[in-house]
Amino acid sequence: MALKIDQIKDLQDNSIISKSGSNITLGASNDTITVPNTVTVAGAMANTPAFFAYKSSSQDLTSGVTTKVTFDTEVFDTDSAYDAANSKFVVPSGEAGKYVFNLAILTTCPEATNRFDRALYFYYVNGVDTARWITDFRTGYGSQFTSNANIILDLNESDYVEAYCQFVVTAGTARLNGSGYYYTTFQGHKLTG
Question: How many folded domains does the chain comprise?
Answer without folding.
Answer: 1
